[in-house]
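Entry 12.
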Amino acid sequence: MTSMDAKPKVVNKPKKDVVYQVFTRLFGNKNTTNKPWGTIEENGVGKFNDFTDKALQEIKKLGVTYIWYTGVPHHDVIRDYTKYGISNDDPDIVKGRAGSPYAVKDYYNVNPDLAVNPAKRLEEFQALITRTHTNGLKVIIDIVPNHIARNYHSLTNPKGVTDFGAEDDTSLEYARDNNFYYIPGKSFEVPTSNTYRPLNGERNPLSDGKFTENPAKWTGNGSRQAKPDINDWYETVKVNYGIKPDGSKDFPELPAGYDTKDYKTHYEFWKGKDVPSSWKKFRDIALYWTAKGIDGFRYDMAEMVPYEFWSYMNSAIKMKNPDAFLLAEVYNPKEYRNYINLGKMDYLYDKVETYDHLKAIIHGSAMPDPLSDIQEDMKDIEHHMLHFLDNHDEQRLASLEFAGTPEKGKPMMVVSATISTSPTMIYFGQEVGEDGKEDAGFGKPSRTSIFDYIGVPHHQRWMNGGKFDGGALSKSEKDLRDFYKRLLNFTIKSNALMGKYQEIHTLNRNETKMYDAGIYSYVRWSDKEKLIVVVNFSWVTTSHFELKVPEDVIKTWNLKDGLYNVKDQLYGSTTQLKVTDGKGTIQLSLKPSESFIFKL
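Predicted 3D structure (tokens):
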């Protein structure tokens, strides 16, 4: 039977956090045309101002504590903003028409598409930060240290700040204080493909199959070819953090034992150390946004950057804001502890363990049982492994390619939100069953496009022309949002979900009759609250059985023989826990995709 470590890692947060990821460009768009490769005029675009007080209040009422505004830093976009002093971007090195949010062109300003008045775009975003805080929510934005747009150029560098690469020695493939890696003697060549044409072949003055870059730089995903492959991240260039081309480190390394040291000790270590130029540039970017009131960052592809850099930057952020929320994209389980303990990350995506296994369960290719092993293997870091079922990179939970229906996602969501002490993240539209069916152009169905101007249909029905009241939702969509609202609001108030965990699944799998293949169960508790969680992943089978609550749990909870009322925290139904000879049982009937969170 699996339980949290006898000496669990100290959790400082008293309650759960819930992150609401929103693709800022798409959130407020009311246009429903959805023409593939459509322009702003054809398909519309959302603005910072669409996040009204009413919208923010409704997001908060959903049970949200943080909003991650995705796609805010000024990235490449195919639209003429030259009257604002912004250079046009070349379709040959831009993915989609609206551009990838992960090809940042200017870290000291924001995407002009998102402003009513592009000349005042930074002021409009600052007003949104203030409005978000006023409505009781905290703000996260992206930082993408591994790579930047191939044509990076900031119009608003603070005094003393120069652009990336401005002082590089371009005659060398590598120098520690170069911001980029170079391919001396070769010019960049635009990748070619028989199946892809920029802007779907539409004529554009800059779309000529050429982009001037001499010498060529390494591409964002590490390609060292002057002509990257069409599947490479050719719109970006890789940033040099003092990792030599042979993979060796060209910077001070943390002393032994620093995996147990706090951020203040890490900060002291880096004081006065000679570090690569790129480290300083990204630290300054993070501190610039922290000073503007940003409460945290989501770091793209963090494992492609050495954890020593993260120690340097994250400790500097924490010295300014000890409560900063630092979330990283890391997909290699062998590196999790390095990025948490040495890199001073607060949270990593629990993607390749919990998320991938939940997806396999709902596809019918795996049993729920290994969820217990996953929790056991990560018990020392479980608080740091943020749970999600939907985000901009992954297939929509409700898509045919994932769960198939949003209702099938309900038991997955209950497990994702209640099995550990970590924060939970949802992606805008998930709560109303968004399925990502649109062919947006560069972005293809099953994922809501991050490259195109597009409307988000289920979300638009909730938005209801800017009323943000769900007035245009179907009954099933309203019921789904109500489920998310009940679940998330419970999680952010629960003491038990920040306490102990023990699976009771193995006992029931081995000994309980009619405990069907899709059932999974565990208990959570604190001194103030005791929970029994049971879910049915099956979407066809109603299960009737007598759930066993083992003797050690009954003893730990100090329950005497007798009957105890338990109430479901989702929909309020009640039943009884019967304790006989120190062992507990509950008579249960679980419908397809149904879950119970019983509170003693």
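Annotation: The first strand starts at residue 18 and ends at 23. Confidence is low (pLDDT under 50) at residues 2-10.
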